[in-house]
Design brief:
Length: 337
């Protein structure tokens, strides 16, 4: 349920309404702007009679929210959310670009890639330390050692780091070390993990599941936000369809759809979507054109010999060219890079 207060309502009057509902056991999400104050009521609101609330002279209107997600709903929070990740703002006018290899291999590899993406204008450094693989015989990542290597490369080059968490028992190793914790597609509905992430205040990058609907995706974000962590960034990385030519099918229509439904920032991962390096550049440009707040792009200094997903990785020089193209495209859609 949404309670819209009249413009100019004194703060004390809005607090009275809020406290009255909290005494009844509801959680109240307060969203304030220059000319509005909205109280989002979370809980079983079927027992609330809207007429009793509108008796208050300061209440403009009361609306019921049909979607099952509340905190992530744009009705609760009309303005776009901007998430601060190690000093990098994601969700504002400036686009954020996360770049780096699929998996962390060596110190030399990480430092080389980190230097090149930093020079090209990347905002954050990515790299996989714990790797979820379809086959149990595939490379599973360097784990804790890789996490340390990623942190060192990011620190040397002044880039916040992004890496994927696989299970809640590793959370203590991530908090304080990782600037943006990624939840992979396979864990999008690992609700126990999402609940634990909700207890932290570390920004979370939530990837869309392999065949998840938009509502299911936002509901997973709701799990994290319901725990108290509202620093959530959504990531579209392609979904499974009947098409087999590409690794996945990048759903660009999801970007404006999510923007309409939710206030959370959205980034796009064209590398995992296509699975082929030569598709990454056009898909990245298209993502910015439809309103994405940023990109996650795989970059490797030697993709031919990469330990994981070399076929979808850009070489540093191609990444630099893409960044230049994006700088030219961004102003057309009212953004900057």
């Amino acid at each position: 349920m949404i309670i819209v207060m009249k413009p100019g309502t004194p703060d004390a009057e809005a607090v009275k309404v809020q406290e009255s509902l909290e005494k009844q056991g509801f959680y109240i999400n307060v969203s304030k702007g220059l000319n509005y104050c909205i109280l989002g009521v979370v809980g079983d609101t079927s027992m609330i009679d809207p007429k009793r609330i509108t008796v208050n002279d300061y209440v403009e209107k009361v609306m019921r929210v049909q979607e099952p997600f509340k905190r992530a709903n744009r009705m609760f929070h009309p303005e776009n959310t901007v998430v601060n990740v190690g000093g990098v703002q994601i969700g504002g006018k400036k686009l954020a670009v996360i770049a780096g290899p699929c998996s962390i291999e060596t110190d030399e590899q990480m430092n080389s890639v980190a230097e090149s993406v930093k020079e090209a204008g990347a905002s954050l450094l990515r790299g996989g330390a714990f790797k979820p693989r379809t086959s149990p015989y595939s490379f599973q990542g360097l784990k804790e050692k890789g996490l340390d290597m990623l942190g060192e490369a990011g620190s040397k080059n002044g880039l916040p780091i992004v890496t994927e968490i696989m299970s809640a028992d590793k959370l203590d190793q991530f908090v304080g070390k990782v600037d943006l914790i990624q939840v992979g597609a396979r864990n999008m509905q690992n609700f126990e993990l999402l609940k634990e992430l909700g207890k932290t205040q570390v920004p979370i990058l939530l990837k869309r599941g392999l065949a998840a609907t938009i509502e299911e995706w936002i509901m997973s974000a709701e799990y994290i936000m319901a725990g108290g962590n509202e620093n959530v960034i959504l990531c579209e990385r392609g979904i499974r369809t009947y098409e087999t030519y590409t690794r996945n099918t990048l759903d660009l229509s999801a970007i404006p759809a999510v923007k309409k439904l939710s206030h959370l920032p959205v980034v796009v991962d064209p590398s995992h979507a296509a699975g082929m390096w030569w598709m990454v550049e056009p898909l990245a440009k298209a993502a910015i054109a439809v309103g994405a707040d940023g990109l996650m792009i795989e970059v490797h200094n030697d993709p031919e010999n990469a330990w994981c997903d070399g076929a979808q990785s850009l070489k540093p020089e191609r990444f630099a060219n893409l960044m230049q193209d994006l700088k030219n495209i961004a102003p057309i859609v009212g953004r900057e890079l």
